[in-house]
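Before surveying the methods themselves, it helps to consider a single example record, giving the amino acid sequence and backbone structure tokens:
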Amino acid sequence: MFTKNKVVFAADHAGFDLKNKLMRELQNRGVETRDLGTHTPDSVDYPDFAHRLAEGLEADEYGVLICGTGNGVCMSANRHPGIRAGLAWNVEVAGLLRRHNDANVLCLPARFIGEETALAAALEFLTAEFEGGRHERRVQKIEPRA
């Protein structure tokens, strides 16, 4: 069962194809998706799309960001308060992002992950639940103190 049935996607040109494939697969599984671009494979700047997703993510949504390494979109998204974006390159890491870090944005490295692994990682991310407990204390320490 999906913990949230709404997923917002954004990617740069390197992640364009993978974004579209993952969106179709999730839609086929009954997940509502929202596409914030890019909408062509033409070269674009990854921070533009990471910021767009981070600024527009609603409380009842998860985000998926994709670029060549996944690092650029992850660093850009994490500049926004309330965003906990994490990079996953396999299913186990994707699940731990949710269970231990309460991540709300999954970042994928399009040039370093196969389509099947990316889909499995996304499905794990979307179905895993935050465990709380000792992890809650750690997650609360992520946001800078005023």
